[in-house]
Design brief:
Elements lengths: L21 H17 L5 H18 L9 H13 L4 H20 L26 H9 L8 H14 L3 H5 L6 E2 L4 E5 L5 E5 L2 H11 L2 H6 L20 H15 L7 H14 L4 H8 L4 H4 L7 H11 L4
Antiparallel strand pairs: 1-2, 2-3
Helix pairs in contact: 1-2, 5-6, 5-10, 6-8, 6-11
Length: 318
């Protein structure tokens, strides 16, 4: 029996790496996405974020050689993203994606060192998110017309987002068995499959009951094989995460509040208003599903006006 010669991976120490052109880049990205899917078992939304980030990076790369990039080149890339108006948090995520991708390239022997380890796009923890005032929230939540075909659903969605601080993906994935209106709470399935229980206020309960028990949801739910999602499209499908964003922005425009808001604005408003009302930070952390209290602490910096008022009232020289 003829023996085949043994092969081994050629590392950069043994020979120069083959140039990485556009086609090779597409293959590398595909292998990277396979690795995070099968080896790290990351959540679908996390995989989608990596895919989008690397699509942007590949488009910027153009004719540049991946193996020749240094930290200045990657800095130029992040600077280009900032020039396009990308939020600071999004740029920080892009930087994290590059670090993870370059670590994969090192393991694969494509690059010897990772210039991505030297880039810094700022910490996300020090970012103070935008919020709505309680008056703006009231206008937004009152904007859906209950007489319209989707009015009851949209009001239930907005009330649910503000009452729980849930992410768009969490309300999209919420099922009827997760909602306990009589007991005034719901179960959220967050990042990494973590499950948490969040209370529901009376207005959210009323809006959810009007939608769930109403004829319009029954009509939409008559689609064979569909799980019992709380929020449905007019065709009876699960309301997608992107559709949740569109609905929030549609009613923001109707209510006369900033039209560039999204579901996360209601999440930030939920947390900010709780902290401003004196709720213990640990309780807010638990309701938001933050693994670290440091992430929740950013909401203590938002209500600066309230702190100034307290200082002026109680400090001897205020």
């Amino acid at each position: 029996m003829e023996r085949r010669p043994r092969t081994r991976r050629i590392l950069l120490d043994d020979a120069p790496a083959a140039p990485v052109g556009p086609q090779s880049m597409a293959l590398l990205v595909g292998r990277f996405l396979d690795s995070i899917r099968h080896e790290r078992a990351l959540a679908d939304n996390t995989q989608a974020a990596y895919r989008r980030d690397l699509a942007h990076f590949t488009a910027w790369l153009g004719s540049r050689r991946l193996e020749r990039l240094d930290v200045r080149d990657l800095g130029d890339y992040l600077g280009a993203l900032a020039g396009r108006g990308l939020a600071r948090a999004s740029i920080a995520r892009q930087a994290a994606t590059l670090r993870t991708f370059y670590a994969f390239l090192q393991v694969e022997g494509i690059v010897a060192e990772s210039p991505a380890e030297l880039i810094s796009a700022g910490r996300r923890d020090d970012f103070i998110p935008g919020t709505l005032s309680p008056e703006q929230v009231d206008r937004l939540l009152a904007s859906p017309d209950p007489r319209s075909p989707t009015g009851l659903r949209d009001r239930a969605l907005l009330e649910l987002l503000y009452a729980t601080g849930c992410r768009a993906s969490e309300v999209s994935a919420m099922r009827l068995i997760d909602v306990h209106l009589a007991e005034a709470f719901c179960t959220c399935h967050g990042k990494g499959g973590k499950e948490r229980v969040v209370p529901l206020g009376r207005r959210a309960i009323a809006a959810l009951r009007a939608w769930i028990d109403g004829p319009r949801r029954d009509a939409a739910a008559r689609v064979e094989g569909q799980p019992a999602w709380v929020l449905l499209s007019s065709r009876g499908n699960r309301l997608s995460r992107m559709r949740v964003w569109e609905i929030v922005r549609l009613h923001a425009d109707t209510a006369g509040v900033p039209s560039d808001i999204g579901p996360h604005t209601l999440r930030h408003s939920f947390a900010t208003h709780l902290v401003a009302g004196g709720v213990d930070l640990r309780h807010v952390q638990e309701m938001l599903g933050h693994s670290s209290i440091a992430t929740t602490q950013r909401y203590t910096h938002v209500d600066a006006g309230r702190l100034k008022g307290i200082h002026g009232t109680f400090h001897p020289r205020g």
